[in-house]
Amino acid sequence: MNVEKIKRFLLLGCLALFFASFYASGVYALTCETTPGKIPITLGYHGTKVTIQGKDLHAPDVIVQIHSDIGEEHLKYIGKASGIFWMKLGNMIFENVPAVYLVYSNRNIHEILPSQKCEELSIGFDSLKKKAKIRSSLKDLDREKWLAEFLKFKQKEHLYREQPGIVKVDQANGAYSVEIDWPFEAPPGEYFVEVFAVQNGEVVDKAESKIKVERVGIEKQLSHMAFERPALYGIIAIIVAIVAGFGVGMVFKGGGGH
Amino acid sequence: MYIYLPIALTSVTLWLVVGLGLLVGLLSGLFGVGGGFLMTPLLMMIGIPPTVAAATDANQIVAASASGTLAHWRLGNVDFKMGLLLLVGGFTGGALGVHVIKVLRATGGADFLIKITYVLMLGIVGTFMFFESLHALKKQKAAAAMTEEERIRAEKEAREKAEAKAKKKSFLASLPMQIYFEKSGVTHSALLPVALGIFVGVLAAIMGVGGGFLMVPVMIYLLRMPMHVVVGTSLFQIMFTCVEVTFLQAYQNHTVDIILAILLLIGSTIGAQIGTKLGKKLHGDQLKILLAIIVLGVTVKMILGLVLEPSLLLAHGGGH
Fold it and tell me: How far is A133 from A141, CA to CA, in rounded Å?
């Protein structure tokens, strides 16, 4: 009898371990679907609408964050030269930051998750500020001031965004959805979408997806030529300009201008 | 209607960019300036990265100046002999200036020098042209109101002044390789336009512009060329300078955006033709005073930009 009990406990333990490892390996119940998954940059591209939605939600709150690879941002800092003139004075490199960072939620993220949890999971501007590092030639660097300036700069470029209240949560049907304006300023590349289901200040489920932004058609060909065959690209640019200049000159003459 | 720019990596409104091209092309045809000092800041204002704005601007100036040169050549307003000598100097000066800026960047403080040179040169050129043209316009008005006796006396005084000035110029007259420039109706040593070309080339390279707004006053006040020939010759010289800059920027820095350049040149080539025709209807001094006002306006804007605290204390590299 005791042996049977031990066997049963062992079996339950194995099952628990199996589900726990399943959870830890990133296979969750919560789903995440991005539409479109690929954003083509065409000649008339001006950003697009992207819908992120999912099912099997068993929590009242949802945070959706989208980011590019974590890396460095090389900028110039502006200060007063000779005590009179405002101008670019030197380099300022922000490390451990993404080029693009967009965060959406159904409520203010500070009301959903405690700041410590946000920091652990790298969610939100405050967590980003804590993890970022600054390298600069500037003496007596005020870290807080320059990180605030960095966030202001990126938000003005539409590359950083923290927007609470726009994720729609349908708890009855266990679904969520958010429609976002994808900024045309975001460069081509791969973006990571992370969805966190939150209950009582804890992340109870997580889903991931990707968005790929790529040039197509003439945009792709021109960009390829500019970087791979720059001499030919330069000559074509000059010929186009001269032909256009002389061509318009001819048209004006033909129109009996003189 | 939006257009995505493959090198600038941004989206712009089609008509806004064509409109900017038209405006700057108009100035190009009217005054013989490339308009780089105006176009680059305008492009930056609509969100084009500074390095792409400067390089693409040079590309569109090729089109505007080609269009303008053709129009002025048909009118017989291009002094090719003078233009070629200025070009030789300009190319040499440009290479020298690029080297100077490289050394300054390595030692630091290059940005400060560029800004100050920009403001000083624009301020000096604009102020000088403004007052000179104002004086000339006043003189014309006074001459129209003079009696015959007063006019004879004034002409005599002017002749005496010109003779005294000619005596002062004896140093320039003593230089070797004196050449008569038929189109401009002036005689100078070939060394003079080459030297002035070098001077403008160095400044243009430091400031990152084609140098038209510097070359035009040099031709008017130092080479004493007539205004109608100055505009055509300046455009001819600018066209070649910008061909060189476009190629180097495309080859070394990959910063020429051909789509942006095409949109700008659609506007600028048409604007240059309109400007040339409009220029024919305006008096030389009226043209000079208009250019002076534009140059002074840009100077004031730059000074304000230097003195007032910007809303953002971070910026991308490149540009001015």
Answer: 12
CA distance A124 to A115: 9
Helices B284-307, B110-144: axis angle to 10 degrees equals: 150
Tell me if the domain spanning A31-214 has CATH number 2.60.40.1930: yes
Asked if A238 lies within 8 A of B310 by C-beta distance, the reply is no
A87 within 8 A of B319, measured Cβ to Cβ: no
CB B48 within 8 A of CB B260: yes
The candidate with the shortest Cα–Cα distance to B31, out of B268, B213, B265, B239, is B213
| Chain centroid, CA B235 distance in Å | 9
Per-residue model confidence as pLDDT tens digits over B281-312:
877 777 778 888 888 888 888 888 888 999 99
CB contact under 8 A, B2 and A45: yes
Nearest CA to B242 out of B203, B200, B211 is that of B211
pTM: 0.76
What does the angle CA A78 – CA A79 – CA A85 come to, to the nearest 5 degrees?
110
Q: Phi/psi of residue B254, each to 5°?
A: 55, 45
Contact A88 B111 (CB under 8 A): yes
pLDDT < 50 positions in chain A: 15, 18-27, 254-258
d(CA A7, CA B42): 78
Q: Is the peptide bond before A40 cis (omega within 30 degrees of 0)?
A: no
Cα angle at B193 between B192 and B199, to 5 degrees? 90
Distance between CA atoms of residues A169 and A174, nearest Å: 8
- Domains of chain A: which residue ranges? 1-28, 31-214, 220-254
pLDDT bracket for residue B208 (50, 70, 90): low
Write down the residue that tokens 């003439």 correspond to.
A218
- State ipTM: 0.79
A35 CA: distance to closest CA in chain B (Å): 21
Is B120 in the A-facing interface, judged by CB distances under 8 Å?
no
Q: Which residues of A touch B247 (CB under 8 A)?
A: 231, 234-235, 238
Give the pairing type, strands A133-136 and A85-98.
Answer: antiparallel
